[in-house]
Amino acid sequence: MDFLDVSREKWREVPAGGDVMGRVFSSDLLKASDAELLTHWQRMDESGRVPDHRGWYQVLYCEAFAGRQVVEVGSGLGFDGIHFMRNGAKWVFTDIVKDNLETVRRLVDLHGLSAQADYLWIDKPEALLALQGEFDVVWANGSLHHAPFEIARLESQILLGRLKPGGRWIELFYPYERWVRQGRPDFSEWGKVTDGERTPWAEWYDVERIKRRLFPAATVTILDLQFGGGQYGWVDLAVDGTGSVALPPAAVEKLTRSADVIGLPLVSLHGTVQRQAGGPAFRCSSRIWDYSWAIDIGEAVGKIGEDTASNRKWAIDLEFELGSGAVGFILTAENHDEFLGREVVADARPTLQRVTASTYGASPPPRWLLMRNVAHETASSGTLVSASLRISN
Ligand SMILES: C[S@@+](CC[C@H](N)C(=O)[O-])C[C@H]1O[C@@H](n2cnc3c(N)ncnc32)[C@H](O)[C@@H]1O
User: Which domains does the chain have, with CATH numbers?
Assistant: First the structure.
């Protein structure tokens, strides 16, 4: 049985609106009369409209979606699609479960919105190639994080090919911090924690990991936030139409390589840094802005290659523990004072953290990963656990 068949067996049972109404099997809903189905759906819809669930974004995008073409991947019981269609959007519902789509079709008909809707069953990712026309928005609310990265990437790349230049990629996902909080389980186990026993998969995301899935499409981040009490992440990206989405696979493979830089030469600047089994352990001097240490990433830059077409950037994914204070990570040129992108600041926390530092452009290529103390009169201290350099979009 392939993964989507296993997943289909789970997702015949879909969220029943808000966080308080549990789940419901679409096959059971299909047995109800029209009146019963509509009443039940309206109750579920009502409970999901609370401000910290669907409320805020259904307001935010309401006017912007009027007259727009939206394709939703993993539409469940259609709460978002029906809301936006009532306000003028045109919507294509797609899902891996036929009964979910059948339920939505009945509900759309009952709302008198049939002329604005279309449907596509995803038996396998390539089914999305059958989508007709071009779209202003891809809407993925809590669906793609339930598939392994490579399957989600395949679906994403097909959907990207149907997005108009400047179109938007909008996605709800479970954030990295939630995964850490819940014990960093394997993705094949995590779904049981997030969505119940029968859930075969849940994978954490953050904006950088979504961008990796969309690579090589170039994107601009419009929104990147958490909501729902820290349970949900939300990303809204504008996708650059000139991004070379149709690169041959070999070129994509070359551009998506990454290099571990944690073992490369490390220089101590102010404070102390010592290599230990868990990674370099550092204690900064207590003066704010003092450079603490730098890793010479020249060798990794050479290995990945400087073949970075115009709109690409360099990025470094960092995992670390920070017990006290606050630090900033920056990619610099040969001279430590020449920052090549925005400094990424992290405050101390009791759990593992991750951030990505990037350059603004392709050149000059970075030479150092620099960390400095950014806390007032505090000797910030912690351990760098991993550091991986790559080309970014
Ligand atoms: C948590 S529900 C969310 C439903 C809906 N988007 C909402 O906001 O209520 C997940 C939905 O995604 C669908 N799904 C799961 N894996 C998928 C995949 N790989 N591709 C497309 N849809 C998928 C499921 O069938 C289900 O309808």
Answer: 3-246 (3.40.50.150), 254-392 (2.60.120.260)
